Amino acid sequence: MFTCIFRLFNLQIVNGDEYQEMAENRLIRACTIKAPRGEIMDRYGVPLVTNKMGYYILVQNVEKNDSALNDTISALIDICRVDNIEYFDEFPISKKPYSYTFEDNSDKVISEWKAEKKLKKYDTPEEIIEHYIEEFVISEHFDDDKKRDIIAVRYTMQNKNFSTMNPYTFANNISMETVQKIKEYEFDLNGVSVEIEPVRDYPFGNLAAHILGRTDIIYREEYLKLREEGYGMNDIIGKDGLEKVLEKYLKGKDGYKRVDQTSSGTVSQNMKVKDAVTENFAILTLDSGLQKMTEEALAKSITDARGDKGPDCYSGAAVAVEIATGDVLAMASLPNYKPDRYTKDYNKLAKDPHKPLFNRALDGAYTPGSTFKPLTAIAALEEGIITPTQIIEDKGVYTYYAPSYQPTCLIWKNTGDTHGPINVSEAIGVSCNYFFYEVGRQLTISKIEKYAHSFGLGETTGIELSESRGIVAGPEYRDKLDMEWYPGDTLQAAIGQSDNMFTPAQLASYVSTILNKGNRFALRLIKEVRSYRTGEIVYKSEPKIVSQAEIKDSTLAAVKDGMRRVTEDGTAKAVFEDFPIAVGGKTGTAEVGRGSDTVLFVGFAPYDNPQIAVAVVLEHGATSRYAAQVAKSMFEYYLGISEVNDQVTPLNTILK
Fold it and tell me: Which domains does the chain have, with CATH numbers?
């Protein structure tokens, strides 16, 4: 008893002031241990997106006044500038000359922002800068650019609810050189520490970048929507692509540690730890080997076309679909970008005239040209306009309408010759415009529109990502433009011209639907999601038929035969003449407003037992053989005729 009384007397009376000062200068904090996101794998379990450990700069709210905090921020900015590290900046006003940097700089957007931030309605960017200089008590000894940058960080901190209990992530994925500098100056950077976090790693670089998507720190607007689901202001979330679609499955459960910390932010000891948990991983329909081959072949054809008749060819897309299921085996869009450098390279990427951020496979809508002719053939056969053996004579000039509109067959235009009397399979093989002018006129545009929609053209594919719907030419679309539809437009629509615009994904789906006799499967990229802990399936997608337009066996046989003729005797013969396995295809050429023609190829393999359907588009590729060559490489890999290289040539190097 006497000992206890003595200890209390000593603590409270003799050394009370000293211990009180120590207690006031120490704080126990709960710090988050970030959970790694679940991996993303291809259909065979090959990792496409994994994790590695990275470093980020964390700022604790330990400074006693604005001036000290501003000095700390200024020092961090200087370090990041020297090391070329991007730090977070959400402030929507640029450096001098000050201007707004919203994606949409409309008066409405600016007014709404001013109202939200309680700024004056008629404040100019210069006056807003002065407002924040005063609010954040920024010293006059900083130059104008540094003032603006400190404002940007303080503004972003404010958006992230920076407080004693809510630290702020200043920059993430920083280099080891930057880590060492922070450590070196840690006594001058009160509240600043370097923490370890898992960051996304891409074993194959920028492979399938548009499909896989990217991650980044949560925005304030996102946080407000997700906070009820346990998200924090410094969380990393999926921003686009499958990373965003799979967010609820891939996000793990964060752990935490309680730390004993001094007022300057220095940690003296960890008191308790709850481990972070990664819960699930995703398995896609993609075949990583075929994806690599597709991107390599596409990049090579773009380069080859640019060295030939398409000097303005810098981009393209290719899609491969498993016919029996709708599984997307490969989906490429070039040029692309490196997901782990998206934020750092954004300004450069956004200004690139070749639009590397644009997903051409799903959002690029292209005039299909002659790749549309199999659809016109199906409609004519099913509607009884023609039979598989019926002959139509190509006379070169189509004279049904007045002399003011008499389109010609391409062979007539180029050589003055004609294809003579041919049936539908032969017409597909040689891509005879005259034949399809005649059957298109008899079909009428309403029937062409009907069959186009039935085979998935002008319809969403059902894929998990956002996509363009495309355009089916016809009076309905013209009405939206307040324009008239003329009889001659029907002839152009029948050969894939006029207003027709479809995505590469739609074209691959359309070919697959032909081979499925009118049964259209939704395209899918996600196969299943499984638990790391138990291996159990958390989510599973199944093949799904989204529409049915059954066609006769004789119709399918005639159209298939025509597409075989394309690769054996027709417009793609030069590419496929030595191919050891019979395949079917159709080339297409689309004139564009400026520059070289855009070229296309759609096809399937093998001919006797179709398993894979492909679509390839080269913007300004000029000659369709370059599109067909990409498809040939895809067929070779899929059918086991060739193997993909272990080392992929960097696509950015090829495309320069």
Answer: 62-161 (no CATH), 359-521+535-611 (3.40.710.10)
